[in-house]
Amino acid sequence: MLKNINIENILFLDIETAPEYPSYDDLPEIFKKLWDKKAMRIKKEENDTPDFLYERAGIYSEFGKIICISVGIMKDGEIRIKSFFGDDEKLLLSDFSKMLSTKFNSKTNLLCAHNGKEFDFPYIARRMLIHNIRLPEMLDIAGKKPWEISHLDTMELWKFGDYKNYTSLELLAAIFNIPTPKDDIDGSMVGEVYWKEKDLPRIVKYCQKDVLTIAQLFLKYKGKPLIADDKVVIVT
Length: 236
Description:
The protein has helices at about 30-40, 50-55, 90-105, 120-130, 155-160, 170-175, 190-195, 200-220; strands at about 10-20, 65-75, 80-85, 110-115, 150-155, 230-235. It contains 8 helices and 6 strands, in the order E-H-H-E-E-H-E-H-E-H-H-H-H-E. The chain has a single domain, classed as Ribonuclease H-like superfamily/Ribonuclease H (Nucleotidyltransferase, domain 5), CATH 3.30.420.
C-alpha cells in the first residue's frame, strides 16, 4: 500500500530518447532493411513510408537511443534533480548505472516513472545490454517474482487494475491541478530538437520537468502536499 512506502526511498525517473541516426537516409543498410520491416507493421496510412515514419524510431529501443535520464530524490520536503545526458549514450548509461549501483542500491529503494514498466525501465536495460554495460540490480529483473521487483509506475497505479487505455502524465497533472511550466516542446518533438536544432539543454529541461511532475503526482496519490517551487534543487 502506498501509505507504507517511504517517499525518501524512491528515485523518480524519466528518459528522453531520439532516433539513433539523424535521418532514414543515414541508417546503415542492414538497419534500413530492418526498419522497412518495422515500418510495415506500424504504418496506419497508405502513404506512411519508412522514411516518413523514421521520426518515430526513438520510441523503439532497437532503433533509438537515450539522450537524457533525469532523476529526482525527495528529502525533508525538498527534491533534488540530476540529469545524465549527452551524445555519448554509453557514457551516460555507465554514469547512471554507477549511481544506481553505489548510491541507490538499498533493498528498500524503489524506481518510479510514468509508464516506466512499459517504457523507461526496459528501454534503459536494453540499451545497457547493447553497450555491454552490466545491469544494476534494480534493473536486472529476469527470473524475479513480481513482488521482488522494486519498480513503481504512476500510470499503473492510476489504472487500479484497468489495462484498457493509456493515461498521459500531462492529463493526470491537469486532473490533480499540479502546476507545470509552459513548455514549447513535447515528447514527439524531441528527435527533431536533438538532431535538427541540436538543442540538448532544452530537452534536459523538459526531462527534469517531467521528473518533478511524476514526484508531485505520487505525492497526490499519497494525499500529501506538493513540493514548493523553492524546494526544487537542480544538481549540476
